[in-house]
Amino acid sequence: MVLLILFTGMRSNEVLALKKEDILDSGTILIRDSKTHTSRTAFLHPEVKEALATYHAQHPNPDNPYVFYPHYGRLTSPLTYTAIRAVVKELFIEAGIYKSGLNLHCLRHTFARCLVESGFRREDIQKLLGHKSLRSTEIYTVLSDQDVLKKAPLVYESIQAYLEESEKLLP
Question: What is the pTM of this model?
């Protein structure tokens, strides 16, 4: 589940509503129950596909239509947000990265930040995150002071190159 959110940027409620039939043979995921009441497509990374296959092999339940489901109790229903929050918190603790405020939604932010750092356009990130408004996407893509400091030398190099080129053009 963590990998699915990290590699797709899906919202936790989208993950909970995800059905097995929504994972297509083409390597894509159809996200039907979006917060914005629209459908969109996400891409299934091979590592995530393998993790899902392992999960279903370890916890077989062919009668449950959902990708993630309880292992006891109401076996034909999806997992609840409370259940996945507890599992993810435990994973964060085991990994030694847990701190107050770290939650499932942080994984979505991480996905968006990776896209920004990889040079994706905001409009493309907006589509991948399923936002109706670019303003919503901008919350995820704001540069930190550290990001700006890392890029400052590149800005200086660009300015210097521009000035040098301008001098060549002057008589």
Answer: 0.74
Residue 144 has pLDDT above 60, yes or no: no
From 105, 132, 150, 151, active-site residue: 105
Annotated catalytic residue, options 35, 74, 121, 132:
35
Q: For this structure, is 151 an active site residue? A: no
pLDDT band (50, 70, 90) for residue 49: very high
Is 35 a catalytic site residue? Answer: yes
Cα angle 12-18-24, degrees, rounded to a multiple of 5 = 130
99 given a catalytic annotation: no
Q: Are 105 and 129 in contact (CB under 8 A)?
A: no
Average pLDDT over residues 66-78: 78
Give the pLDDT mean for 126-143. 83
Three-state SS for the chain is CHHHHHHHCCCHHHHHHCEHHHECCCCEEEECCCCCCCCEEEECCHHHHHHHHHHHHHCCCCCCCECCCCCCCCCCCCCCHHHHHHHHHHHHHHHCCCCCCCCHHHHHHHHHHHHHHCCCCHHHHHHHHCCCCHHHHHHHHCCCHHHHHHHHHHHHHHHHHHHHHHHHHCC
Active site residue 108: yes
- State the Cα angle at 119 between 115 and 121, rounded to 5°: 80
